[in-house]
Design brief:
Length: 201
């Protein structure tokens, strides 16, 4: 199954936030505001160095936008500092928050399976469509993200989250919804969306 494609007229350079302690522990982070750890800060700097090669001398030309969560904002500040730009001169858009795991946020997947085995089985069977208790499915996240993609008018550097990247892989790149939620999203490699496809840098 695939979605109606959204092909923005501009290039989108996606950066996932660096690692947090909850990432390291395998906890469902969702919209909880967990800070970067030391490795996460180094990953953000590596992303900035890769962006420097992508953007060349035109580092101020793109729009810079981040999710409002602390881990994405810290990543953006490090990226911009690495690029030699004002660390705080970027926009924040709440639409770009991570997928919500609702009542499961803070749990590891084995803890979810122990607490709610039937719900865990349902999510494994339909990772795109399943809505965690008080949370959000990838399908709902896609409805939130699609208008933002359609509104892009200029090349943009976005710092956001793994779930947002997976949804964009389906919406922009045409990845089937059965595959998109399974994709690994690296924390120190920018992902370029352009011309209806996506490519890792």
């Amino acid at each position: 199954m695939s979605l109606a494609r959204v092909i923005p007229p501009a290039r989108l350079i996606f950066v996932r936030h660096g690692e947090t302690e909850w990432n390291r522990e395998g906890r469902l982070q969702g919209q909880q505001d967990i800070p970067l750890n030391a490795l996460g800060r180094e990953q953000a700097a590596r992303s900035g160095r890769k962006l420097a090669k992508i953007l060349g001398a035109n580092r101020e030309a793109p729009e810079y936008v981040a999710s409002p969560l602390g881990r994405t904002r810290e990543t953006m500040r490090i990226v911009r500092q690495t690029l030699g730009l004002d660390p705080d001169a970027y926009r924040v858009d709440p639409v770009l928050k991570e997928l919500s795991f609702g009542n499961w946020e803070g749990l590891t997947w084995p803890e979810v399976e122990a607490l709610s085995p039937e719900l865990a089985r349902r999510r494994i069977a339909d990772k795109w469509g399943f809505v965690p208790p008080e949370g959000e499915s990838y399908g709902l996240l896609a409805l939130r993200i699609a208008p933002w993609l359609q509104s892009l008018q200029a090349d943009t550097v976005l710092v956001s989250h793994g779930g947002v990247a997976r949804v964009m892989m389906a919406l922009v790149g045409g990845l089937p919804v059965e595959r998109a939620p399974q994709m690994d999203i690296w924390q120190d490699r920018p992902l370029i969306f352009a011309d209806g496809r996506f490519d890792w840098v």
